[in-house]
Amino acid sequence: MWPFPKSDLKYRLTLQVIAISALTLVAASAWFVIDTERSMRARIDAVADLTAKTLELQQNKISWVSNPRREFPDLPVIAASVMAPGLCIAYRANNGELVQRLCGGSQADAGDPPRVFAAVYRKLFDPGREAVRPVSFRGEKIGEAIASIDPKTLMAEAWRDTGRLIAVLAI
């Protein structure tokens, strides 16, 4: 079974420890990538929910005021509290027209992840996915609130977390 029949026990135990360490590194790295992906998805889902609710409130406010200003949608009000690097929020009308879109800039210290990591990440996850929530007014859908994160920012964040782990485990 073992390719080296006369190898000593210390050599085989050393190889087993190295193999177990490598498997642990791979498992921990995968967990970090999956956890980063899951937390970012939860974040854009929460931002899409907040954007939809705030847009509904803006529409209701316009109908309540006797002399309304027709500034709908007013995404800068929402962006002030939720904007982060790479995050985009938008409002799409029922006809499919993108009425307004705001995006945060990229993170200054975010470097590009290695090509292999980026390719694997794109294959396993959908980094360009949007969270879409309906915006209603008086029971009718009037459009959609959209939240998304720039795929490069998402991959850079996942690589940053995974790279830290690899650096710690390599020591």
Any overview of this molecule?
With 171 residues, this protein is α+β, with helices and mostly antiparallel strands. It contains four helices and four strands. It has a four-stranded antiparallel beta sheet with strand order 2-1-4-3. Helix 1 packs antiparallel against helix 4. The longest helix has 56 residues. The two termini are 33 Å apart.
Question: What's the short story on this structure?
Answer:
The protein is an alpha+beta fold and 171 residues long. The protein has 4 helices and 4 strands.
Strand order of the largest sheet: 2-1-4-3
- The coarse overall form would be elongated
The mean pLDDT is 83
How far apart lie the N and C ends?
33 Å
Oligomer: single chain
Q: Number of helical segments?
A: 4
Number of strands: 4
Tell me about the biggest sheet?
A: 4 strands, antiparallel
Q: Could you spell the SSE succession in H and E letters?
A: HHEEHEEH
How many whole angstroms does the radius of gyration measure? 24 Å
* Helix/strand class: alpha+beta
Tell me the β content: 15-25%
Spans of at least 5 consecutive residues with low confidence: none
Helix content: 40-55%
Keywords:
171 residues; alpha+beta; four-stranded antiparallel beta sheet; 55% helix
Map the helices and strands:
Layout: H1 9-64, H2 75-82, E1 87-93, E2 98-103, H3 115-124, E3 130-137, E4 140-149, H4 151-170
Antiparallel strand pairs: 1-2, 1-4, 3-4
